[in-house]
Amino acid sequence: MIQRRAFLLASAAILTLESTGLARPIGKANIGPGRKLRIAGARAPIEILEDRMGIPHIRAKSKHDAFFGQGYMVARDRLFQIDFAYRRELGRMAEVFGPRFVAADRAARLFQYHGDIDAELRALPAEVLECARGYVAGVNARIAELEADPTLLPLEYRILGITPLHWDVRDLVRVRSDGMGNVDDEVRRAQLQARGLLHLDQFMDPLRPAWQFTVPEGLDCAAVSEADLGVLLDAARPLPFDDGQLAFSSYDRELDRIDLAGQGSNAWTVAGSRTATGRPILANDPHLGIGGASPRHISHLTAPGLDVIGGGQPGLPGIMQGHTDRFAFGRTNFHIDQTDLFILRTRDDDPQQYWHDGKWKRFETVEEEIAVKGAPPQRVVLRYAEGRPIVSEDPARHRAVAFASVSLLSGANMRFAMIAINLARDWASLREAFKIHVSPTNIHYADVDGNTGWHTVGFVPKRPRHDGLFPAPGDGSYDWTGILKVEEMPNIYNPKQGWFASANEMNLPADYPYKERKISFSWSDPFRHDRVAEVLSAQPRHRIEDSIALQHDVQSLPARALMKLLPAKPSPAAAPAAQLLRRWNCAIEADSAAALLYELVMPELSSGFRELVIPPAARDLIPSVNLSEMLRLLAAPDKRLGADPVAARDALVDKALAAGWAKAVELRGPDPAGWRWGDLHQVVIAHPLSKLPAIAAAFPRIDGGRSGGDGTTVMARGVNPARGYNVTHGASYLLVADVGAWDNSRVLLLPGQSADPRSPHYRDFYPDWLAGNMQPLWFSKTAVDANAVSRTVLAPAD
Question: What count of other Cβ atoms lies within 10 Å of the Cβ of residue 60?
């Protein structure tokens, strides 16, 4: 499964803060009037105070100008990051990088919204649209500054020989795609069904809640193959920045799937009845990719009727995780099946027609011209059926495949949703904002009046005749009939328990009518959630310090499960490993030898388990096994492990222990006294285009940091051994909010606000992040004024 997550594929760079004069640390006693800049697009003077961490506190006279300030500051700190993503999403890479990028551009344009953009804009709340226009104007104002003095452009532009694109608010509607969703899972299941091996899918992607497979009537599973994914596979591949073939030849989609499946987020909300102060506490740490561009940028936006602070996604207006003056809000990924493949029958004598609703229809077509650097423009024809992109065609078999995604529906304007959330004042108005929130999300809420709430949001397609687990015939009989209303989504308000948490686990309430409202049957393993629940349920007087400690908790529930499986009489080769692990407290600490051994044993165990339970006929379709399912079967072995399942289990564990010990000796030497998990598990951040020598030279790696944790601990520091042992994903942004006493809130951001190596904020958060030393998130005017180190005024140009 390729999870639907906000993607940030480009690195970022920003001109030095000193060179602009905007963030020169002059000390609060000497701030004075600061610097005044004339900026086109601002409607009134905008004051920006920056604190010592480079967080801008934007004070405007209107909401439009507050978002203008956010767009301007994000462009100042992260222009290349947001510009690169914008160019890729618009399908305008070939015009600056050449013919190799035409395929990526065609794929990007295929998944754009081609409906009535003006109608979409008119349907948005007027205030939300006005704020979005302000954000776009702020980005463009910064770009205009750099055009006036190109020497101040971020370093990438000179190296790559390109210039930034001007933004258009219409593109916030046009750009919709969020990946292939889980349609690759649909293809895999159809192939397993065709081989009579569908029952084995449970080992890769267990159905939660329990469910029985039903193949849609009329679907020929034997005809389904990966070729049906077509353009979706092209869109998932890395961009060919090296020699054009190297990027493709080294690409491994299964490793990407493992990386993405391991990502997630944590959030918990504790009511005042269970805190030491009587005020609610809300904690959130989104787990996204670590190793490239930071996926969050912190801002504070203030204007009449608006006061919000927290982490935003660069290039997306608004704050994603933070708090207003009235309530705190956090988010984790909720699982919604938002995509489907529809198999179309095309006409024998005219492959441009397909059968739907009892008649032949002609594909809708959109012609696009792709500008290509150093070559003539290329014209491409994009085909659609019922508004769904055609991702593959096979005229010889009278077959085409359409990709259905909620992101392409009318009204699916996710890029405006954060603004609506930021403008809300309470639970009721927040639920109104959820109506344009497309992405699957658990929203956490806690307000100054002591109320707490959890609400799942995101567009859920109504499938009257199928469950989304297989491709479906595209004749119209399996078409979607709408989306669930916000009120139909799972939610709670002021639960009696006094706390709740989400960590991407299957969290549908026991009484939720999931058979009628099919949301998803694919969820993350519950390890992180279960550990959070274990801790919170034992803390009747929870404190801010407790939330900070829990965000950095490295206790491993899978490790506990493994301890119960250690053989009583291990073989001589496995005995040293068993002895070391038996003395261990199951904490994945950076300085732990046992943690290192455990991390080397588990891949061996998983590999051996797969070889034991997955027959050769299915191994190409099941390249890895689900950790929870593996541990469950090993704890209660049955005939799937063989004629003597207990003996087979014990032999499997013994072999993994011996292999893990041998691997540890190979990597760290024969003496376990010198083994440390953190020596292998490090935090390395490099520019995503660092394969280009000039980029690598201009943007030195940020490294040297050792880390504990893994992908199953609350302090998620994901690792994919097939790609090495460095941290691949985790919480680069962490927030703990003291609701109502906002200046007590704490935050971390990896590695810093800026992505320019000349900036003091390029890596200033890095050591604090590694140490878990969370920093104040100043909010009140008094606190912000007292901790400001620079002042800038953006004044209208006319």
Answer: 26
